[in-house]
Structures are given as C-alpha cells and as structure tokens.
C-alpha cells in the first residue's frame, strides 16, 4: 500500500490517503486511490508477468490518441481519462511494475447485464464517432495499423503437430478430437489474412475489445474503457463483437447516418472472429502447457478451453 502511495507522490505529485485494491483483469492489478478531493484508478502491470511487455509496449502510442480524442472529438466524457505524470509522461515504472493512472469513474461496470435501449444508443454513437477518425488525426498511428498478421499461428500449428506423448494426458484428452478442425481454422485464417493484406479496406480507429466488461455506466453516461487494443483497422474489428447482438440492426441504423453506404466486409468479419477464437484457445493451451498453475486454476482453464473448443464445432 505504501508503495502505491509513493508511486502517486513521486511520479504524479499527488498525496493520497486511501488505497483500495480493485478487481483487476487477468493481466494487471488495479487500485482505487483517493484523497479528500479526488479518486483515481491505478493500473499496475507487474514486471514478473510474461504478458507485461506485450501489453505495455504501445502505451506511449495509444494514450496520446485517447488524450487527443478527449480534446477534439465528441468522445469527451465517454472514454477513460488518462492522467499524465509530473514530467508529462503517459506511464511510469519502477523495478516492480509499470503504472498507468486514470481518473476514477464512479459507476457500475455493465458486465453480465444486457444493454438498455439508451445504452445501445450511446454505444452506437461512441463507435460511430470513433470510426470517423483514421490516420487523418495529427498523432502518429503507424505503430498500430492493422497488418492482418496472426503472430501466434505458427506456434499453435507446431504444438498441434505434436503427438499424445508430448502433452499432459488430460490436455491431450481435451484437444485431440478437435485437432483436424483446429488445423482447418488455422488454414482458413491464413487464407483470409493473405487476402485482406492485398485488399484496400477503409481503416478507422477501433477499440477491438468491445464487451460489456469494458463498459461502465456513470450517471447518465455510458463510458468505454480499456483502450489497450486501440488499432487503425477495418470497422469489422469492432463490429465482430456486435453482429450477433439483438440490437445490431439498431446499431447499424445509427452508424449509417454518419457512415453512409457502409457495408460489412464478410471476409474481415470472418477473419476477426476466427482470430479471436484461436487466440483464446491458444492462450488457454499456453497456460496449461507452460505456466505454473495451481490445481484449481488448472481446472478452471481446462473448462474455459473446453467451452472454446465446443464453439468451433458450430463453425
Ligand atoms: N477509470 C476507472 N475507474 C473505475 N473503475 C475502472 C476504471 N477503469 C477500469 N475500471 C474497472 O476495472 C475493471 C478492469 O479494468 P480494465 O477493463 O481497464 O482492465 P482489464 O480488463 O483488467 O485489463 P487487462 O486484461 O489488461 O488486465 C473494469 O471492468 C472496471 O470495472
Ligand atoms: Mg477490460
């Protein structure tokens, strides 16, 4: 706790007296930190975690875009507000972690609940606005232009080529009957990747992780948070999260008022859905094969993997 206090003092010149741990995600820790005037949300990426370098590599590229959007677009009040350090940096670090500070959002995460009609309307407006920006903004976007690469595919393919004896037996039991389907999916994903690389699609700023755990209701406002995935990508990178929702037609009606003549590119949609599915499967497999896990954690990962594998049957 004292360590959190000194981070705030040393890097942000903010004195705080209350620190309360928050429910973090799988990859980071989080704290609500407050003094009598204000509260903040501190995200901590521990250097001991393997995922940290990848997740923090682009902070200095995407946070300035958030700041720009807050100043220059209608997204002010509808997206998370990052705080800069006293040296006007977007993140800070010590030997233990990498830290990002945000204004604290008083409100509730939507999570498992369905969106209300009003929330659907607000989400539609947020995405419509976000997608009206591309590389025409005065901040560099080169670092996160979609290149349709799927970097984990070679590793996944190699792993699937191994046989029964190379897997812990319970993992083999789980995956072996899906290997053909997985290889099919890898193959089609590579084909789509190649085609999309060669096509000239309209690119826009995309959030790329649009689910209800990244939406908060604060007073009258719906707020979109967790911008680590910000990309310059075809709109399908976001629409893939919405097209199976009951409100998708309503979303499109609002979206098309601004993005007239927009039509979905089915190949981009299929690419993003397949990629997400395989990404999740690979992540669970990696945990089971390479991470040190407790027995209970392992059972949970096995269940998640089973669920994901069941889903590929539906493709
Ligand atoms: N600025 C904020 N103020 C208050 N609560 C927040 C704020 N940002 C995030 N939260 C809460 O913390 C949860 C996790 O935050 P966020 O989505 O940014 O990270 P994450 O999904 O844990 O990311 P990762 O997967 O990188 O660990 C959110 O679902 C939300 O409930
Ligand atoms: Mg999140």
UniProtKB/TrEMBL annotation:
InterPro entries, per the entry: AGP_Transferase, Aminoglycoside_PTrfase, Kinase-like_dom_sf
Superkingdom of the source species: Bacteria
Pfam families on file: APH
Protein name: Aminoglycoside phosphotransferase family protein
Domain Aminoglycoside phosphotransferase: 21-242
Gene3D superfamilies: 1.20.58.840, Phosphorylase Kinase, domain 1, Transferase(Phosphotransferase) domain 1
């Amino acid at each position: 706790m004292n360590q959190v206090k000194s981070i705030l003092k040393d890097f942000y010149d903010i004195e705080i007296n209350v620190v309360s741990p928050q429910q973090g995600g799988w990859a980071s820790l989080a704290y609500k930190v407050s003094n009598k005037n204000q509260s903040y949300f501190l995200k901590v990426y521990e250097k001991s975690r393997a995922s940290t370098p990848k997740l923090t590599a682009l902070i200095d590229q995407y946070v300035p875009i958030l700041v720009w959007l807050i100043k220059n677009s209608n997204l002010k009040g509808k997206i998370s507000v990052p705080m800069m350090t006293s040296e006007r940096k977007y993140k800070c670090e010590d030997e233990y972690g990498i830290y990002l500070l945000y204004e604290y959002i008083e409100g509730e995460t939507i999570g498992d609940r369905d969106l209300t009609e009003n929330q659907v309307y607000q989400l539609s407006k947020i995405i419509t606005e976000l997608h009206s920006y591309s590389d025409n903004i005065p901040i560099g976007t080169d670092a996160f232009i979609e290149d349709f690469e799927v970097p984990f595919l070679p590793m996944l393919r190699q792993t699937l080529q191994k046989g029964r004896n190379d897997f812990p037996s319970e993992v083999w039991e789980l995956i072996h009957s899906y290997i053909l389907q997985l290889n099919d999916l890898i193959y089609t994903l590579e084909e789509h990747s190649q085609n999309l690389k060669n096509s000239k699609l309209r690119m826009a700023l995309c959030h790329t992780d649009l689910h209800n755990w990244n939406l908060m209701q604060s007073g009258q406002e719906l707020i979109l948070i967790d911008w680590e995935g910000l990309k310059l990508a075809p709109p399908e990178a976001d629409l893939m999260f919405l097209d199976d929702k009951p409100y998708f037609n309503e979303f499109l009606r609002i979206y098309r008022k601004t993005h007239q003549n927009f039509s979905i590119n089915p190949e981009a949609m299929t690419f993003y859905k397949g990629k997400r599915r395989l990404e999740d499967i690979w992540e669970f497999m990696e945990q089971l094969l390479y991470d040190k896990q407790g027995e209970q954690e392992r059972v949970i990962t096995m269940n998640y993997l089973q669920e994901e594998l069941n889903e590929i049957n539906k493709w």
